[in-house]
Amino acid sequence: MAKFRKLKCLKNRHHGERAVIVCNGPSLNRMDLGFLRNEIVIGLNKIFLGFEEFDFYPNYYVAVNRKVIEQSVSQIKSMDCVKFISYSSSDLIPSDDLTYYVQTERPIDRFSRDISQGVHEGWTVTYVALQIAYYLGFKEIIIIGMDHRYEYTGAPNESRKMSGPDYNHFSPDYFRGQTWDNPDLFHSEESYRIARAEFEKDGRRIIDATLDGACTVFEKADYREVFGLNVTLLPTSSSFS
User: According to the model, what pLDDT value does residue 15 have?
Assistant: First the structure.
């Protein structure tokens, strides 16, 4: 379709390079993220809530969940980076020079090597970001902030309103007082296994450098070693106020 054709100009833009996908887990609060200013960064969902404290800005941004987009319209519009937004939310976020739509309804492939043909949501925005990173040509992906553990009530994928502080993300205000979709870790891990296989099939790699991350799908590493940092971990916050 013509509306997705402009994605073609992004194919292999970063051939052979490294990118960091920054997920939104509370482990980010234990990291000094200043090193990200020297990396190509892909931010997800409500990462903008941490810009001031974390002191970095992403090169790319991905959001496909309509609830997240509805709750973040003004922040997404104001972001000065390349943005990938689900076409199903095109009524909320207009297309412009920095905003690219991706088709997430009825994708052709389970893992898309050509995002102009659609992407599979895979029960997690991180999976969408991995397909985009593959299309952009990155050879190595480092993931941080993918804690992969949640406190919630109800069934996976069920929509629930969070009344108190959000302990599942780096900010207590992430979904406070708002509706979110419960995570589906089983299907998320299924998606991650597919992504790992597709990357490795093409001689690429995905490294999970999340602090104390619970996901066991990807190759693990200490982010301080990956990025050559000599830093002390920040103390774990016991509670949100």
Answer: 98
